[in-house]
Description:
With 305 residues, the protein is α/β, with parallel strands linked by helices. It is 27% helix and 19% strand. It has helices at residues 7-15, 52-55, 86-99, 106-112, 172-178, 199-204, 212-216, 257-276, 286-290, 298-301; strands spanning 2-5, 22-26, 31-33, 59-66, 69-72, 80-84, 115-120, 142-147, 150-155, 223-228, 231-236.
Amino acid sequence: MEFLCSEEDIVNWLASKLEEYAVYIPSEYGFERASSSDELKLNFPLPAISIKSLFFPHSDVLMRFRGKEIVEALPDEEKKIVLTKACDANSLKVLDAVFLSEPVDPYYERRRKNTVIVTVECEQMCYGGFCKDIGIEPEGDVVIRRRGKSYCVEVRNSELLPEFEKFEACDEGAEETAKGTKENLLNIEWLEDAFESEVWDEVSRFCISCGVCTYLCPTCHCFDITDSGRVRIRTWDSCQFPYFTMHTSGYNPRPEKKHRLRNRIYHKFSYFPQRYGIVACVGCGRCVRMCPSRIDIRELVLRRD
Ligand code: SF4
Ligand code: SF4
């Protein structure tokens, strides 16, 4: 069901939730918890640190050691509303596939359940982004699309429907104009025969193995676990680091940058779709914008007619 609302209507709805839910809204840096209705708005940036940090933090204490006792440090099941954009909302499909498949990750599951995703559709793609080029459509419990000076609010979570029934329905024309009509430019068939291609040498030549592309990527989910004093911590890791695949024997199956960059592309566009049926990239463009070596994933996966 779609309802016609003003920005004030939507902000008032969010404000009415501030006591029951932790409401998160993106800033330039990451997702911040709103402490008052003054901070709620629909015009927010795509943050540098993606939505994954809310459910899979960069550093997470898994357990604490107290003498001989081991205490699991499971997070609280916080009720959250998260305002976000289509790319980050879609990335949760990838993370859910990984962390909520058996064996379920209890740390991710606790943070993820009781979450209401409110997705505000972008009117145009951001610099470096290519979400619409690869057919990304907004996911979420509530999807908000601009319509003139108002908004069409599509309520997909039936539990929330009664809260919007006082608003007039959006007519069908609004839905048609707002939803993506662009041709899908994803071009990944060539990967089938490209494992030994020289393209990986060329593309990786100026990579400095900094890991920024993977840390900022909303769908990358590799991690390391270390013991530090009396705690066991899980931290984000990156397949772009030289020692990521180093074996204890000293053998490294991906010793060169070209092997690691190739793996990043194959993992997202070949291995992950084979295993879970979805591409593990949502076209957010963070890796394009933030790579210090200006390595542009679009040149590898988009058709350039
Ligand atoms: S951000 Fe760029 S330079 Fe850094 S690891 Fe990724 S591809 Fe290499
Ligand atoms: S690979 Fe790049 S564009 Fe795709 S989801 Fe990750 S950061 Fe975004």
